[in-house]
Amino acid sequence: MSVRVAVSGAAGRMGRTLIEAVANADALELGAAIEQPGSSLLGSDAGELAGLGKNGVVLVGDIRAVTDAFEVLIDFTVPQATLANLSACVAVGRKIVIGTTGFSAEQQAEIEQAAASVQICKASNFSTGVNLCFKLLEMAASVIGDDSDIEIYEAHHRHKIDAPSGTALSMGEVIAATLGRDLGKVAVYGREGQIGVRDKESIGFATVRAGDIVGDHTVTFAAEGERVEITHKASSRMSFARGAVRAAAWLAEQPAGLYDMQNVLGFQHE
Ligand code: NAP
């Protein structure tokens, strides 16, 4: 039997791609599509919005009106909307896949608290390739991390509203955890002026916002005489949507708790 899912932020860039990915997934069926209450697109057919032709699922502005129509919510919106949708899911015991990025520490704590009663899969990046890169970064950090200067570069389209990207921060966290460093203390976000000599322990972040770049990330480990670069380039949002859809099908079978894409792919956390 297929798992019924809802997509929140259904008219957004990721939302439309998610609707297409759900339509292409045998294990899932679209039960509801949600947009923000003021959207001029409320009442539109979700399939038509995604360029697939009518599918009979109409965009609604209030998740509480459709909680009977899905088991798992896939939410790629903005932090405030995700948290409101999360509390609606907790109230009626629905599972949630969270792709939204840019949460504050307090908002992240709220998500962790909710995971005591519902299944949550949250990832800053749902693409399989990026999650593989997280494992490669662990390996690189443990072999050459202490002998290298580590810098993380990310580039995204001009509409992205948070920086650095959630993926870049996750990469920094993976590396810092492997090296026993506290990212909060060693991260350097951008440089300008008389910055002095580089602190050996620091992990630098550089952000570019331009055009329609879907998502590029490169981590450089620069040592004396050589450097290793681990790069991922997304060329289509479908890479994230396919991962989120896979996570929704996987989450349907799990007990309450907070999971990420590494769990979905069966990678062991160190
Ligand atoms: P987007 O095109 O702006 O889409 C967000 C959508 O959410 C918009 O249609 C927005 O409507 C809608 N929305 C706002 N408030 C809402 C509410 N209360 N209820 C329902 N929908 C609401 O942005 P995007 O590029 O798709 O990205 C969305 C999020 O996903 C961002 O945080 C981005 O960083 C993240 N992302 C994550 C991954 C990953 O793999 N984890 C990959 C790509 C993107 P309005 O436009 O009318 O405000």
Overview of the structural elements:
It contains nine helices and twelve strands. By secondary structure, it is an alpha/beta fold. It folds into two domains: 3-122 and 237-264, Rossmann fold, CATH 3.40.50; 128-234, Dihydrodipicolinate Reductase, domain 2 (2-Layer Sandwich). The strands form two sheets. It has a seven-stranded parallel beta sheet, sandwiched between helices. Strands 8-9-7-10-11 form a five-stranded mixed beta sheet. The radius of gyration is 19 Å and the shape is elongated. The relative contact order is 0.16. The structure holds NADP nicotinamide-adenine-dinucleotide phosphate. NADP nicotinamide-adenine-dinucleotide phosphate (NAP) binds at residues 8-9, 11-15, 34-36, 39, 76-78, 81, 99-102, 123-126, 240.
